[in-house]
Amino acid sequence: MTILDKIIAFKKKEIAKIKAEIPVKKLVESPNFGRTVFSLKKSLLEVGSTGIIAEYKRQSPSKGIINDKATIAEVTNGYLDANVAAQSILTDTSFFGGTMADLMEARVINQQKPILRKDFIVDGFQIVEAKAIGADVILLIASCLTATELKNYGNLATDLGLEVLYEVHTQEDLDKINDLDNKIIGINNRNLKTFEVDLDHSIKLSSQIPDTCLKVSESGISDPKIITGLKEFGFQGFLIGENFMKTENPGEACQEFISQIR
Length: 262
Ligand SMILES: O=C(O)c1ccccc1NCC(=O)[C@H](O)[C@H](O)COP(=O)(O)O
What we know:
TIM Barrel; 8-stranded parallel β-barrel; two-stranded antiparallel ribbon; globular; binds ligand LARABZUK
């Protein structure tokens, strides 16, 4: 059993418990249901967009503790000052040390850029929850879901006015996504089963993605030169966590990184 299998099994149990305690009706009453959603697509396509989706990540299964000091407020303000295209917040507690409260706090501060709820979605309830806590985008990891789940959860998110970042690592993952056209596709350079990171992975798989898609490269990015290379292969979004979060001041690190993108 891989860590990913363990995470998914744990998530399913966790969500079943939460669903038994919190009615969907309660989530729908959240003021965030009435707010205007910020579009990731629009932000990535904007003229002059940095394309950086900067992540708040305290810890991870592959690296352990990355940063347990930098606060949500400091990092959110720092990322916004750096002119990121979007923010990503891990809301999983058991494996990444994140919380839904983290995202809610970031939402209060961030009233200008999209926020991705970074979690392992295994149930439609979490998509309604994402809207309730103020997210604009959800992540659907193709290797963790069936083709039917990907379709149904994608439709549910769209119905709620949320966007979806579909994450793939293999051709098999891509084949599971119904009608790729116009979707936001994230290629994870990290193999979530082995944690191996290959920065060429995005480029290798990119030719399989239609031009109508918005391509995002995820994980292991630590050098602005990598962004230049990825842009040549049509990538417009770059999800970066550890490289910023491992520093004392993630916002400043992000600003420095962005200033070096050519
Ligand atoms: O980061 C991990 O160890 C990990 C393990 C298992 C499942 C997912 C994992 N990471 C999620 C991510 O995709 C990254 O947080 C994100 O792409 C940013 O990556 P990085 O810049 O390498 O922090």
